[in-house]
Amino acid sequence: MARTALVIGASRGIGREFVRQFIADGWKVFATARDETSLAMLTDEGAHAIKIDVTKPESLAELPWRLDGERIDLALYVAGVLPNWEGAAESPTLADFDAAMHANVLGAMQALPLLAPFVADAKGRFVFITSVMGSIAEATSSTAWIYRASKAALNMAVYSARRDYPDLTLAVIHPGWVQTDMGGPGATVAVRDSVSGMRQVIDHLKPSDSGAFLAYDGRKIAW
Ligand SMILES: NC(=O)c1ccc[n+]([C@@H]2O[C@H](COP(=O)([O-])OP(=O)(O)OC[C@H]3O[C@@H](n4cnc5c(N)ncnc54)[C@H](OP(=O)(O)O)[C@@H]3O)[C@@H](O)[C@H]2O)c1
Fold first, then answer.
1. To the nearest whole number, what is the mean pLDDT of the chain?
2. From atom 35 of ligand 1, which residue's Cα is the shortest distance away?
3. Exposed, middle or buried, 83 (CB in 10 Å: 0-12/13-18/19+)?
4. CATH label of the domain that carries residue 199
């Protein structure tokens, strides 16, 4: 039977590549974007496109009724922003802080309870794309200070929730330094390789792994 995926944040970059690969492999795919052009592109590529802005709770709240009757084998929270690369020498603005915390953390925390029943029905996996920059153990600088704090908060949100959701497998995955708008042209990992690597890692996740923090190449990352 075809498997079903939900990709939240699929207009470009890593999310879009997940959609492409799932469609190519015969999955049924629900994919979200914020603008009409991206929604049309996702539809053309064979996905069920849903308009969602993860920073708007009323928008996220539409997902359950749009997915009514579906079982989600894999839900992916990919949406994210990196407002700037400034470190701890600069005082963050409220706007930059809110942008990162709302898209990277609050949206994910709101999506989990809303979508968990659909994933639990399939005994599926709910994976959140984090960053090694959210690892406290591996922090060697404060570069992109706000982003680091937001991904560390996302990691805590997902890890601490694992016992509340025994019927699904939760994980946070670092995609590598990936050639996307966010990663920039100097990034070392092609988006196709990042996504195919993450898919392998996700395929190997067992229920007992719930709460794992892994990289796209399978490396276990210290919190
Ligand atoms: N690239 C890297 O090297 C790298 C490394 C570590 C982690 N990551 C993480 O990987 C994920 C994907 O990153 P990427 O490299 O693919 O970045 P990207 O090319 O900048 O794409 C970001 C995606 O997030 C979506 N998004 C942002 N704000 C949103 C909102 N409010 N509502 C809905 N969607 C929203 C964007 O949609 P719009 O087109 O509508 O803006 C876009 O689809 C992010 O969580 C990022 O933090 C990336």
1. 97
2. 79
3. buried
4. 3.40.50.720
Using alpha carbons only, what angle is made at residue 159 by residues 157 and 162, rounded to the nearest 5 degrees? 105
User: Tokens 């599926």 appear where?
Assistant: 124
Predicted local distance difference test score (pLDDT) of residue 2: 81
Question: Residue 93: CB partners within 8 Å, gap ≥ 6?
Answer: none
- Cα of 60 to ligand 1 centre, how many Å? 16
Range of the domain at 181: 4-215
| Structural domain includes residue 220 | no
pLDDT tens digits, one per residue of 89-106: 999 999 999 999 999 999
pTM over the 0.90 mark: yes
Instruction: Assess whether the C-beta atom of 78 lies below 6 angstroms from ligand 1.
Output: yes
Does the beta carbon of 203 lie inside 6 Å of ligand 1?
no
Residue 194 belongs to a domain: yes
pLDDT score for 142: 98
How many domains, the chain? Answer: 1
Question: Residue 53: pLDDT band by 50, 70, 90 thresholds?
Answer: very high
Probe target for ligand 1 pocket from 6, 7, 12, with the most ligand atoms within 8 Å of CB: 12
